[in-house]
Amino acid sequence: MIGIENTSALANRAANKAALRRTRRVTGLSDRAIVWLFIAPTMLLLLAINIFPLIWAIRLSFTGLMANLPNPARFIGIDNYTDILTDEDVWEHFQATAHFVFSTIALQVLIGLGLALLINQKFRGHSFWTTVILLPMMLSPAVVGNFWTLLFQPQIGPFNYFIGFFTGAAPSSFTMIGSVDLAPWTIVMVNTWMWTPYVMLICLAGLRSIPDYIYEAAEVDRASALRQFWSITLPMVTPFLMLAVLFQAIQSFEMFDMVNLLTSGGPGSTTELVSITLKRAAFEKWETGYASALAVILFVTVFGAANVYVKVLNKVKQQ
Amino acid sequence: MVKMLPIAGLVAASVVAAAPFSAAHADGKSLTMCWAAWDPANALVELDKDFTKQTGIEMKHEFVPWTSYADHFINLLNSRSAECDLIIGDSQWIGGAAENKWYVKLNDFFDKNKISMDSFLPATVVGYAEWPKNTPNYWGLPAMADAVGWTYRKDWFAKPELRAEFKAKYNRELEPPKTWDELLEVSKFFTGKEIDGKKVYGSYIFTERGSEGITMGVTNAMYNYGFDYMDAKGEYRMTGIVNSDGAAKGMDVYKELFNCCQPQGLTNAYMQEGLDAFKSGEVAMQMNWYAFFPGLAKDPNVGGDKIGFFKNPAGPTGQFTQLGGQGLSVVAASKDVDDALLYVKWFAQPDVQQKWTDLGGASASKAVLLSDAYKASAPYAPSFVESMGIVKDFWAEPLYVPLLLDMQNRVHDYVVANKGTSKQALDSLVKDWIKVFKQEGKDPS
To answer: Which residues of B touch A280 (CB under 8 A)?
Structure first.
């Protein structure tokens, strides 16, 4: 028994010595080296999965590479960029994307803020309704695209029957996703349905962050409800709203799956968003160089716009 | 490695020539056959059981839905994957497959095994086996003959009150249309009628945008109004041919048919939507591939005496129809090229070709298709045989995908989305195609 205790003590001493040696080695590192030691893995990962592909895509954008052919990448200068920026079809797709992004955001902000104001009130079943409203954003965009396709089916889809019930129009007399006039609004409607709850959540966080005493002071000053909304609620929720707009603008700009399943960009190219054009060029036509150039243009557009927006957002926050 | 493939093919051909169809030597061996997931693929599974019985080589099958068929298998072939030993590949792939050496060239193998391309319908040999086209360079064996045809509701056409009304209106009998003008008339006549208590539409046509649908549909009108892919004299000269006045007129006719008589909502619809519309009694006539007609002929609701078939109607400049179907090829990257060639040899036998058709496939063998027995075997058979004699096919260039997607976009934009005029759409298409051919290193000027 004594023998075992002695052995254990010896082992502990040896372990302590080893730990001391390690500590000495580590203490030999400068603060800067320790900083690099900690951030190096993240930096390497970032370089491997973000920066390297970006640089590679920029390089490919100056070539005529087609990934499905064994031919090597041939340098063609800025031809891909010239082709894209002078192509009327691409500009139409940018217009379709802009229509989608602006309409979606406008509706999401209006409805999202309205819902947040309602949900912020204390009423019976408040938690239940909050959960119900949040349901759409919990679904996969692919699922949403598929089931709305069925809902919009003119012969059997309930949506046309619903509209027909209120307007008197025959359900099979119109088509939402097959009509040139209605299809752009249809994708806006479905995206709004899906992502408004997200905007509502952010607005709700903003509303809950406003201290009660501000409203109490306003009431003491006999400010009307409308006056309180314009002078207290809206200014204090605006930074949150702007954040929601930023997130949703980026999300809508890169929207692909839901719209692709719903309309495939049709009828014609009425609802072909730039993300769909990009996917077609890259993985259907296999025009890798051209697709890389389009991806770079999209990146610069989104990155530039987001940077400007963040600066404005910071100014608003300071105010 | 690629340069060695023809030699490997030759060696394999010699081995196969000497090998009997015996099970004794093939224990534990297997081959993977790749194709699309549809009715004829089920017939192939049945047929392949005979091959396994005779050779002992187990047949595995990889069938993928049509929507991902091209993407999936072209990616496999391009990456030199050995996942498929045999592939029933689309007719459009043949150019890329030959030039990129995805398939084993079969000329020497055919010579050694006395497999003659003369025993197959000429259009299927050009469409499914040859590259360059119209030259004796074979990369496949015609396997599944197919073309676009039409079905109609025979029982509706036979209704006395409808026949009388049609006669009074058009001063002729209500019969399956023989021209595109007649097709328009009959379609308009049926559209909006209430038959069996249901409002019906005149005709269903292909409108799908994402893959190949609307192109496979619109060409059936355009060919017959003067459209062609290039000038027969000048290689790849398309200006004035692709965008001729006749071609534009053909596109207009297709658009008119879409506007007047297509069921509401079918603006992005292909094979399955057509089958659904016809089976549910929504349309009087349906454009679709003959491959589906055996199933429709037996359908309990619309088959039997209720269904009739006719070939694609003629236009002012001729009568053609769109070629479908596929050829059987040996994948160059396969690790069992000799066994795969053994399968091709077995499949080419006349009795196997006959059984293939009996089971629900569609042989391209003259001995099978041109026999009186075949023509009498099914109500669609006579028009199918006639259709296979008037087929034309889309480009089969290595870069056929961008060519196809360009046409999809231009046609869908005009026909479904009312963008511009047919002439503008075809002018833009010529520009698109010239750009693609230049990428391929060909001079379309």
So the answer is: 405
- In chain B, the residue whose alpha carbon lies closest to the alpha carbon of A271 is B417
- Alpha-carbon gap, residue A10 to A170, rounded angstroms: 91
**What size, in residues, is chain A?**
319
8 Å CB contact of B267 and A178: yes
Chain A residues in contact with B411 by the CB 8 A cut-off are none
B419 CB neighbours in chain A (<8 A) are: 268-269
pLDDT tens digits, one per residue of A242-266: 999 999 999 999 899 999 999 989 8
Q: Which two tokens stand for residue A105?
A: 């955001």
Q: How far apart, in Å, do the first and last CA atoms of chain B sit? A: 36
Residue by residue, DSSP assigns B26-78 as -TT-EEEEEEESSHHHHHHHHHHHHHHHHH--EEEEEEE-HHHHHHHHHHHHH
> pTM value?
0.84
Question: How many C-alpha atoms does B208 have within 13 Å on its Cβ side?
Answer: 18
Q: Which residue has the tokens 């549909």?
A: B217
Q: What percent of chain B has pLDDT over 90?
A: 84
Q: What's the confidence (pLDDT) of residue A26?
A: 55
**Angstrom distance (rounded) from CA A254 to CA A232:** 34
CA distances from B307 to A57, A227, B164 (A): 55, 72, 20
CB within 8 Å of B415: residues ≥ 6 apart: B207, B214, B218, B251, B254, B255, B258
Is residue B289 within 8 Å of residue B358, measured between CB atoms? no
* ipTM for the predicted complex: 0.77
Task: With residue B337 as reference, give the H or E element that holds it.
Answer: helix B337-347
Enumerate the β-bridge partners of residue B195.
Answer: B198
Say yes or no to pLDDT of A6 above 90. no
**How many Cβ atoms from other residues are within 10 Å of residue B357's Cβ?**
23
Write down the domain spans for chain A.
Answer: 83-318
**B251 in Cβ contact with B412 (< 8 Å):** no
- Give the span between the Cα atoms of B268 and B210, in whole angstroms: 8
- What is the DSSP code (8-state) at residue B153? E
Instruction: Report the distance separating Cα A97 and Cα B384, nearest Å.
Output: 45
Only one residue has tokens 């014609």, namely A268
pLDDT value for A239? 92
The answer to whether A232 touches A215, Cβ cutoff 8 Å, is yes
Of B380, B12, B418, the closest CA to residue B176 belongs to B380
Whether the predicted pLDDT of B15 surpasses 80: no
Please, what's the largest Cα pairwise distance for chain B?
A: 72
Out of B100, B264, B268, the one facing A70 most closely (by C-beta) is: B100
For A83-318, CATH gives 1.10.3720.10
Which DSSP string do the residues of A245-277 spell out, in sequence order?
HHHHHHHHHT--HHHHHHTTT-STTTT--HHHH
Distance from A92 to chain B by nearest Cα, in Å? 12
CB atoms within 10 A of CB A118: 15
